[in-house]
C-alpha cells in the first residue's frame, strides 16, 4: 500500500483574480519595510536623543520646530505608515495562522471570530493612519485664533 503526498508548494497558496499571490507580496513587503524601518528608526532615535540633547530636551517646542520642516513631516509620515502597515500585516498573519477560518456563507461567515478580528484590525489600522497623518500635516503650534496667554512662549514673537 503506497501513500502519496501532494507537493507542499501547491497547497495553501492564496490566489485572487489575475493569479496574484498576495501572501508572497505580503512576505516581501515585511522584509523590505523591516529594512527601511530599521534605518528610519535609528535616524529618528539619533536626531531626537543624541543630536537633540537627550530626553530632557524633548518638549513641545522641539516637536514644533521639527514639524516646521517639510522634510521631518515626510520622514515621520513614512515612519508612521511603514510601521503601522508592517505591524498590521504581522497581526493579520497571526490571525490567519491561529484562528479558525470561517465556514459557510452569509451571516455565519460575517459573525465568525476570524472575520471579526480581521475587520477590527483593518478598522483600527485605517483610523490610526488617518489620525496620525492628520496630526503630522496639520500640526500648528501657534494657531492664530488662540488666546495669547495659552500659547507657548515661542509663539509670542510671532504675534
From TrEMBL:
SUPFAM superfamilies, A to Z: Fumarate reductase respiratory complex transmembrane subunits
InterPro entries: SQR/QFR_C/D, SuccDH_FuR_B_TM-su
Residue spans crossing the bilayer: 25-51, 71-95, 115-139
Compartments it resides in: Membrane
Top-level division of the source organism's lineage: Bacteria
Keyword Glycosyltransferase set for record: no
Keyword annotations from UniProtKB, A to Z: Heme, Iron, Membrane, Metal-binding, Transmembrane, Transmembrane helix
Identification of the protein by name: Succinate dehydrogenase
Organism annotation: Naasia aerilata
Amino acid at each position: 500500500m503506497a501513500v502519496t503526498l501532494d507537493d507542499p508548494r501547491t497547497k495553501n497558496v492564496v490566489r485572487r483574480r489575475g493569479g496574484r499571490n498576495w501572501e508572497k507580496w505580503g512576505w516581501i513587503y515585511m522584509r523590505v519595510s523591516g529594512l527601511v524601518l530599521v534605518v528610519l528608526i535609528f535616524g529618528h532615535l539619533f536626531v531626537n536623543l543624541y543630536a537633540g540633547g537627550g530626553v530632557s530636551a524633548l518638549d513641545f517646542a522641539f516637536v514644533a520646530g521639527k514639524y516646521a520642516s517639510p522634510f521631518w513631516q515626510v520622514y515621520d509620515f513614512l515612519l508612521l505608515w511603514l510601521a503601522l502597515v508592517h505591524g498590521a500585516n504581522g497581526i493579520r498573519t497571526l490571525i490567519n495562522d491561529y484562528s479558525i477560518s470561517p465556514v459557510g456563507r452569509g451571516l455565519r461567515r460575517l459573525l465568525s471570530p476570524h472575520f471579526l478580528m480581521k475587520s477590527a484590525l483593518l478598522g483600527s489600522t485605517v483610523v490610526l493612519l488617518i489620525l496620525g497623518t492628520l496630526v503630522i500635516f496639520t500640526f500648528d503650534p501657534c494657531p492664530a485664533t488662540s488666546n495669547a496667554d495659552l500659547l507657548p512662549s515661542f509663539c509670542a514673537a510671532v504675534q
